[in-house]
Sequence to fold (325 residues):
Amino acid sequence: MNTVFCSDYSRQAGEDVIGSATNYQTYILVECPLPWRSEAFSSKWVPENLRILVQEVKRAKLPIIFLLIANDLSHKVNQTTLLIYQRKEGLSNGFCKQEFKLGNIEQVAAVVQKCLSGISANFEVETSTTRDILVCTHGSHDKCCARYGAPFYFKVTATTADLCLDNVRIWKSSHFGGHRFAPTVIDLPEGRYYGVLDQDSFRSILNRTGDIQCLNKVYRGWGILPAALQILERELILQNGWDWFNYKVAGKILEQSLDNNTILAELSFEKPSGSLYTYQAKLVKDETKTQQLKSSCNATQELVVTKYAVGSLWPTSSKVMSYST
Fold:
């Protein structure tokens, strides 16, 4: 019997990856040695107090995701890195980071509880790291992440070393959705998601150089925007080029038809100069790209994946700041 990989099926179907980034207010990344079980937080090295906290947050349906992370040194070091990324409000370029170096993983739950309550916690450190890139390698959860994610992690770790990018860390990560787009990545602190990556597209994203059109294939969307607006943001990226990654953005859905076939969306962005622009767009269900697919290798049923196209796009306001010398 031939093994069917959901990522192969998605690629063969020509699925557009845009609109698949997930919205979270907070990412909590806990360094934990491998191996990880399919349910990551039931893994051997995860302490009971952290397991209970994760379950409580899930039950409360808070917009928080807990992920296990590791690199090639995680099983050798005698400390645990804890990263907490919290979303900035209003016009934003992503998430704010807090980093902690803890003596052991048993301390994680208490520090996280303090931070989520707005209480300052000990062990916070300043680092020169400006980007944490998570590669899903969680093969016990979905075999595509072992088949495509694990070798991709190995290659991109070597790439960043070759480029001498000391301010970028590459982490193996537990599952964060979208196995069928393996190898799949989250780029923090921005919170942008990418999938079906290869070495060339990853290098472009890393350096923000090269043909911006590569994002048509690999950009899953920005986790600070609702899924439907992610197609609009990609349209504006392609119009503005890599400069867009320096802009602050906010977006919202203004109206939605009862059948969800049309959406009126608004997206505002501020350039580094202080100039502010607002666009509105009519998003229309794209029948040619809406498909029935298996969301993972283990899925027993197909699900309908609705995709939108930008039907029309128009500016509604602009405010250009002028500075006198």
